[in-house]
User: What shape does this take?
Amino acid sequence: MRNLRTVARTPRQAARTAVLDPDGAVFLLRSDNVEVGVHWTMPGGGLEAGESPAEGARRELWEETGWTDLEPGPLLCTWEHDFTWHGIPVRQHEHIFLGRGPGRGPVGDVSAVHTADKILGWRWWTPADLADENGDALWPPQLPQLLDSVREVWLGGAGSPAPVQPVDLGYVPNSTRPAGR
Assistant: This one.
């Protein structure tokens, strides 16, 4: 494996949505990548020209799940990481938003998008699933702790959820695996 630190990386902007069901489980997509291998991440991807992160998160959520009735909510975090996208080494800066929705699978035919983006599957992950030290890799690796910090205020009680203070994780190398995971 070549040293990824010496590869020139193209900047790429992206946005994702961490959709939580009423019980606090998060919807994740299973992907495979040269640098990380099999990993799980939220619906999302690269921004189109002139698109804001919130607009990109909404479009990507619709494209990858078929859910036209859900909207990204507040910003949960930002982070940067390196990976190869369709043969191009990129340094991706991501905005991850929170969302709420029912525990359901993708609707409609999203197979073409899943094939193009190398999405291998999907599932709802409970807080216990996320805490499993033997689980597959997550993007970002800090996802369990991020969701633990907001799950109650974002889902708790009737009415509007409490405000969320976004976190900037900075650059996260692919080899980083937080303690407890």
About this structure: Residues 64 and 112 are 9 Å apart (CA to CA). The two ends are 24 Å apart (CA to CA).
